[in-house]
Amino acid sequence: MPGVPLALSALLVVFLVLPVLALLLRGLNAQFLPTLLGPVVLDALRISLLTTSCTMVLTVLLGTPVAWLLARYDFPGKTALDTLLDLPIVLPPVVAGVGLLLAFGRSGLLGAPLELAGISVAFSPAAVVLAQLFVAAPFYLRTAKAGFMAVDRDVEDAARTDGADRWTVFRYITWPLASAFLLEGLVLTWARALGEFGATILFAGSLQGRTRTITLAIYSALESDLAPALVLSAVMVLVAFTVLAVVRRLGSLHTPR
């Protein structure tokens, strides 16, 4: 009976949409602008924008060569490396935070030598960036790799035949042709970094004005003043909707019609 699937579909739609509407209705109220301009919210927004910007820069600088190598070359252990690079996507964020502490904490594998050199990573803004990079960079790697694989090798070979070196080919041919994929991956990376919570609170803590990002500010506000939590939640909903719209638009640019 068509009525049963329709009723079940309507039930699922209501279930998915209702919490979002509740957040918007409670967050976008008369106190939205005053609360948004308050020190708690502004600090969280500032830290989140600063750290996610650093994360995106590091992702592009470090992730692009890796994605290009994975797309262009076969080498021993490639499958294992590809799997390991995807692991943070499915790894629970709390586990990621524990791993980062064991690696870069004061008694960690690299943290201890860094402490001897006077460099403390854990519970600092740098720890926020590293936590975001760990959980978010794989999204860029996946789409960037797909973008480089989608570039016609014959076009690159033709450019080399005409005398172009490898860097020139990458800069003027490979990068532009794969740019829609790269932008899509970067948007997904930024969105994942912006919403990161578990790894950040374990590895960087929740220090007001220092490491407390938007998600940590929401969690902290739930225990005291609900207004910042509602405003920041509404902001995150609007950001998420915008990100999805951008990703769908970028996806349509490299989808055959």
From TrEMBL:
Q: PANTHER family attached here?
A: MOLYBDENUM TRANSPORT SYSTEM PERMEASE PROTEIN MODB
Instruction: Tell me where in this chain the ABC transmembrane type-1 domain is found.
Output: 45-247
Annotated family: Belongs to the binding-protein-dependent transport system permease family. CysTW subfamily.
Q: Which InterPro entries match?
A: MetI-like, MetI-like_sf, ModB_ABC, NifC_ABC_porter
Name of protein: Molybdenum transport system permease
The primary gene name is modB
**Subcellular compartments:** Cell membrane
Write the record's keywords in alphabetical order, separated by commas. Cell membrane, Membrane, Molybdenum, Transmembrane, Transmembrane helix, Transport
User: In UniProt terms, what function does this protein have?
Assistant: Part of the binding-protein-dependent transport system for molybdenum; probably responsible for the translocation of the substrate across the membrane.
Q: Does the keyword Kinase apply?
A: no
Q: Which Gene Ontology cellular component annotation is one that this UniProt entry carries? A: plasma membrane
Its main localization is: membrane
Segments spanning the bilayer are: 46-71, 83-104, 116-141, 169-191, 226-247
Return one GO MF term: molybdate ion transmembrane transporter activity
Species the sequence originates in: Deinococcus radiopugnans ATCC 19172
Q: How does it sit in the membrane?
A: Multi-pass membrane protein
CDD domains assigned: TM_PBP2 (cd06261)
